[in-house]
Design a protein that fits this description.
There is one protein chain. The protein has about 650 residues and is of the alpha+beta class. The longest helix has about 30 residues. It has 3 domains: about 220 residues, no CATH class; about 110 residues, no CATH class; about 210 residues, 2-Layer Sandwich (Nucleotidyltransferase, domain 5). Helix 1 packs parallel to helix 5. The protein contains 23 helices and 21 strands.
Length: about 650
């Protein structure tokens, strides 16, 4: 697929797995002077954490290998420094002496093959008998686990630091997982570079040093990855296909030809073109990937039917979509209508009578009112078509709606409400925030008392984490007892599943320690009607005109705003690092205060959402001010549009 070109296109190990639209904008002259987004504190933290991890591994390898590891000095990123690092890498690869590991390598960039690369290490793997050249395997360090997914009882070749060669690897069994695809693609990139230089292993292999502290070897020829076009493929085939696409995208972009267009996806949040792409998607394209839950993969079926705009999706017919979602070939039904009388029962064409009753379809003449454009999605494996149509309509209207069949939002208010949110770093819980919200009726009004509790530790040790959990549990037990003694109602709220999962892990990790509940005691609370996840209530009973359903997106729509100018879970990781490790006490205290304020706002946001719903009459009684999405059917009638 790759075209022959002398244009100066050069890709590193990350580019074959990066967004093609980012590649296009990087090489398109039109975007040369646009203002780019700066990395967030969270992004910088992850990058710095990765660099720190590489440094730690380098020290560990030096201790394990002593004189068998060659260290190439870190360059200062100037052209001269890079060239010197490349020259030293080539020198060591050709004349290795006693070295079996080259650390901090840099392979020569090659504009003919469009590649540059800096594997963290090269590990010696013998000599090529035909060429007499040394063979080197690429190894990269990652600040994450080496495996992902749920594959059960996998076995992989693993080498220890003291014996890093592949020939010394032993088969090791892991509990679950597959070598991470993003890592494998990077190793494939380095293999192609080594291959071009003549130092590659005959069978493509590469190693990853993850958080496990060992070298886990990837067989880059094993077909273990699912590709959207190629089906089940190896890392090498996956890489080659994606790399060649990006060469074509970049080459065309230089000529001002766009082979890609923007889509909104998870990785956009950390991209330098985030604002540029979002503006294009929102202001120019009205793009369907801005809808909550409509990922680029799910959007493909809409593209195939000529739908890229939210407006066009909103004008599809909901009733027809319900039948499509039920697996009925509505397109064939419409084609067969001519064989029946208008007064014939609709059940002669569709046997699901209960569904027909639900949609108020009785006769063939009712079926004739279905929408042919929506019917084209029949048997297309489209994801929740009817629900997505409603989301598109709500987005265009710009107002929260109740979901179909919902009369009111079941968020009952009570005397004592507690909102809970945890802060953790790499699974270590250092803060559990609780806002206690007391509501007592006095005449026609409520007397409100809100108190925030922060159970915290900044020692980074298990003892501190256990103390935090024990103090939190003591508080919960006390508040439940107080409510029961005073005959008040009690509810504890959280947002999504993160808190209950973390609490169960804490109960297991610190079992038997003072103040720690047993798993049975904890589950009695977590599984009770007193512990409520707001997320499924707000997202199943209501449809929001937001691009995501995170707490921040929903709460901001309910007119709540965080005090911090840049709140976010990713950024909190950077704040936590400074809160515990910064050499200046003033900065440590400042970041601890910032984290507690951020956590306080998280729990206060949950209260704000409930208060907002209560103000709209959505708690306890039938909703009065939030419209039902059913009301959009007439507004978005396709026939009305066609006849206008």
């Amino acid at each position: 697929m790759s075209r022959t070109t002398k244009k100066r296109i050069i890709f590193g190990g990350y580019d074959a797995k990066s967004c093609p639209e980012k590649i296009r904008k990087t090489y398109d002259p039109y975007y040369k002077d646009v203002e780019l987004d700066e990395p967030s504190p969270g992004d910088l933290f992850r990058m710095n954490s990765g660099v720190s991890r590489e440094t730690e591994v380098g020290v560990d390898l030096k201790i394990a290998l002593d004189r068998k590891i060659a260290f190439i000095p870190v360059c200062d990123r100037t052209a001269e420094s890079k060239a010197g690092r490349e020259a030293k890498t080539l020198e060591l690869m050709e004349n290795r002496g006693n070295y079996i590991v080259i650390w901090n390598a840099r392979l020569p960039q090659n504009f003919d093959t469009h590649r540059t690369g800096e594997p963290d290490a090269l590990v010696y793997n013998g000599v090529n008998k035909e060429t007499g050249k040394n063979i080197w395997l690429p190894v990269d360090v990652k600040d994450h686990k080496s495996l992902e997914g749920e594959k059960s009882n996998p076995s992989y070749y693993v080498s220890q630091y003291a014996k890093p060669k592949f020939s010394d690897a032993s088969i090791t069994q892991f509990s679950k997982g597959t070598p991470q695809k993003v890592d494998a693609l990077q190793l494939a990139h380095y293999h192609r570079m080594l291959e071009q230089l003549g130092y590659a292993n005959a069978k493509p292999l590469g190693g990853i040093i993850g958080r496990e502290g060992v070298i886990l070897w990837h067989d880059l020829t094993e077909p273990i990855y699912r590709h959207k076009v190629l089906a089940q493929v190896s890392a090498m085939d996956y890489y080659d296909y994606e790399f060649n696409i990006r060469v074509d995208v970049a080459s065309s972009a230089i000529d001002g030809v766009a082979l890609t267009s923007p889509e909104w996806k998870d990785e956009c949040g950390g991209c330098q073109f985030k604002t540029v792409c979002h503006d294009e998607l929102e202001l120019e394209l009205d793009h369907i990937t801005l809808l909550s839950g409509l990922t680029p993969d799910r959007a493909k079926v809409y593209y195939e039917h000529g739908i890229t705009k939210i407006q066009d999706l909103a004008y599809l017919d909901h009733k027809t979509a319900v039948l499509v979602d039920a697996g009925i070939n509505v397109e064939r039904v419409l084609n067969d209508l001519g064989n029946y009388n208008p007064t014939d029962p609709a059940s002669m064409l569709i046997s699901e009578t209960s569904l027909l009753e639900q949609l108020n379809i009785a006769k063939v003449s009712d079926l004739a009112k279905l929408d042919p454009a929506t019917a084209k999605f029949s048997l297309s494996n489209v994801y929740k078509l009817a629900e997505t149509i409603d989301i598109a309509r709500v987005k265009k209207i710009g107002k929260v709606h109740l979901s179909r069949g919902v009369g009111f939002v079941p968020l009952e208010r009570t005397g004592i409400e507690e909102d809970i949110d945890i802060e953790d770093s790499n699974g270590f819980v250092y803060l559990i925030g609780v806002q206690t919200y007391q509501r007592r009726r006095e005449g026609e009004n409520y007397k409100i008392k809100a108190t925030y509790h922060a159970f915290e530790t900044w020692t980074q040790g298990e003892a501190g984490e256990a103390r935090v959990f024990a103090e939190f549990w003591e508080h919960i037990v006390g508040q439940r007892h107080f409510a029961k003694s005073n005959k008040w109602g009690y509810r504890a709220y959280h947002y999504t599943h993160h808190e209950p999962i973390a609490f169960r892990k804490l109960a297991v990790r610190h079992a038997g320690k003072p103040g720690i509940p047993t798993l049975e005691e904890l589950n009695e609370f977590l599984d009770s009607k007193e512990f409520i996840d707001m997320f499924p209530i707000l997202t199943k009973e209501m449809i929001w005109p937001t691009e995501s359903l995170t707490l921040k997106s929903v709460a901001k729509w309910a007119r709540f705003h965080w005090r911090d100018s840049d709140p976010g879970g990713g950024n909190s990781l950077a704040w936590y690092k400074d809160a515990v490790d910064h050499p200046e006490e003033e900065i440590r205290l400042e970041n601890r205060k910032r984290l507690k304020m951020y956590n306080h706002d998280d729990v206060a946001a949950q209260v704000a959402i409930r208060n907002w719903l209560s103000d709209l009459g959505e708690a306890r009684i039938l909703g009065k001010r939030i419209p039902k999405v059913d009301s959009t059917d007439k507004r978005f009638s396709r026939k009305r549009v066609l006849n206008s």
